[in-house]
TrEMBL record:
SWIRM domain ranges (all copies): 194-281
GO cellular component, one term: nucleus
GO molecular function: chromatin binding; transcription coactivator activity
Cited Pfam families: SWIRM, TADA2A-like_3rd
InterPro entries xref list: Homeodomain-like_sf, SWIRM, TADA2A_B-like_dom, WH-like_DNA-bd_sf
Protein name per the record: SWIRM domain-containing protein
Highest taxon of the lineage: Eukaryota
Gene Ontology biological process terms from the UniProt entry: chromatin remodeling; regulation of transcription by RNA polymerase II
Family matches, as PANTHER family: TRANSCRIPTIONAL ADAPTER 2-ALPHA, TRANSCRIPTIONAL ADAPTOR 2 ADA2 -RELATED
PROSITE patterns per UniProt: SWIRM
Amino acid sequence: MAGYMPARADFMEEFDNYAEWDLKDIDFVDDDTDILHALKVAVVDIYHSRLKERERRKKIIRDHGLINLRKFQILERRYPKEVQDLYDAMRRFARVVGPIEHDKFIESHALEFELRREICRLQEYRRAGIQSFCSAKVYERVKHVREDERRKRTMLVDVLQYIQDGRACQQWLSKQAAIDAGITPVVTTITTSATGRRSAPPLNLTGLPGTEKLNDREKELCQVVRLVPGAYLEYKQALLNECRRQGGLRLAQARALIKIDVNKTRKIYDFLIKEGYINKA
């Protein structure tokens, strides 16, 4: 853990690190009034309570093995995701119970999860009429083959996504050939544009509020930019108002007005200038 000194078994920066500042200037003298003396004693008592809280937190860290946080995280990852979620939820209650009781609680729930998963697997075998583990092995093998066949039958759906782009289709075919040959394919991003990102399909404006207020060119812009008509009309009006107020508008000002993706802002800005709605500053 950062800031922990193993040789001293202590931390460089303490919890409530500046607690001492509140009483560094306190000095008990004989001519103090009773009220002032009581006030100074109260400050010292408060400081003692803060020291106790500091030591309590140190004890929790040591008892639960949180000093080596990386080792703690590695141990946590060996649990299934469902148990990890429980572990994360119960971490805040670790200070209430001892470390052994906390670990027993987590381990018991991990065992319960494994038993439930095994019971579900055995119930699946029973529903399939399997009564021996030898038959279960054959069933699992056939099940995997059946899932592979089902995946191949739906392969055409993936092909259709890239059929319009020769490069993307070639990458996909090379990947599938490597999989069929038993070779782990190199992970590549299938691209359909020069930016290296798959082009999203145009937005369907059917039934969206505000569509009837757009002309054909504005509808085309909303489809390409994937912006709902209501939002486009709002952004358009904001840019028009700012342009009228200043007599012109720069791209940087447009980006400051509408807090969306900068590429979408540029397309809207260029479109409005091209159509004559606004002027460049």
